[in-house]
Amino acid sequence: MLSASDALERLKEGNKRFVNEMSNSESLNNMSRRCRLEEKQEPFAIILGCSDSRVPAEIVFDQGLGDLFVIRVAGNIVAPSQVGSVEFAVEQFGTKLVVVLGHSRCGAVKACIDAVHASADMPSKNVGSIVNRIRPIVETLAETELGNDDEKLMAHAVKANIRSSVDHLSHGSKIIEQKVGAGELTIVGAEYSLDSGVVNFF
Known about the structure:
13% strand, alpha/beta, 51% helix
């Protein structure tokens, strides 16, 4: 299994290929690769990312079948099911790196900003459960000078939400805490730019 630093470097290299339109997708997803993965998988990184259709982790990191264990949820929030999924991958596969992947102009963050500004109810309790995990971050930022500029508020809130998810993962599970404390697991945040395609790691 790759070390966390080697896994991170592999993701960075893959993103560079994606940005430069030099994808290896054919060699990463062919029939022989599928056959090799029938009985076993060894994903080198766990990605907890947003469900946004414009940010598929395998594509933006130019990885193929069996490379990434991907968990996607609107707003890249951390709820019990996401924590459990990370725990599962860490325990089952020995993966050393977790990346919380957010992105610019996130719709879930925008919905939260709109809700804070309008003090409006969510259309459903399920959508509300997502927005409410982001709301404390947006409310805190909205009380600063950022509250007067929605564009800046959005940019800061996206980053703060990613960092919050990293913190939640790092301290929301005994299994994960022990792995991080023992140096067996690294959790980092990253933001994908919808404009450039570049992923910036925190």
